[in-house]
Design brief:
The structure is a homodimer of 87-residue chains.
Chain A lengths: L3 E11 L6 H12 L6 E16 L2 H14 L8 E8 L1
Antiparallel strand pairs in A: 1-2, 1-3
Chain lengths: 87, 87
């Protein structure tokens, strides 16, 4: 049986306790200056949406987790990397 | 009653039919060269995670949709902008 095709999302963000100058700039200089004071925080990150051939959604997610670590898609000292299968 | 606090995710991507040089580079020069041929496509995008005070999740999402259009967080000619409330 041929494997199925799954969509896996990878989100790379600065760690929660680290500063995020990009998010801070968008928050202060764009959103708050624009009058949207209901927005109390903004964090910026990178999204990679991958299409993966695998037998199961879990296998697709595990493969992407492995390649993110293996290929150093993110810096474990500075970033968190969240991997999730979509749909 | 004070409003609740919701997390809203904004994803800005190149339109589906437009090329995505960043995703292509990650796919060809990193992932395929690394031997992960099960990955058949990669699209890169930007994630903004906003914390918003609102009465309901729908109101939080609608406010963020409005500010993304209003403040030109994305370029409607080149990008799609997806807004979703989390949790």
């Amino acid at each position: 049986m041929p494997p199925h095709s799954y969509t896996v999302e990878v989100i790379v963000e600065n760690k929660a306790l680290a500063r995020d100058p990009e998010g801070e700039t968008i928050h202060h200089n764009l959103i708050l200056k624009g009058g949207y004071t209901q927005v109390t925080n903004v964090r910026a990150g990178k999204l990679l949406r991958m299409t993966v051939n695998a037998d199961t959604p879990d296998n697709a997610r595990d493969l992407v987790k492995k390649l993110c670590d293996d290929l150093r898609i993110y810096n474990p000292a500075a970033h968190t990397c969240t991997v999730r299968t979509v749909g």
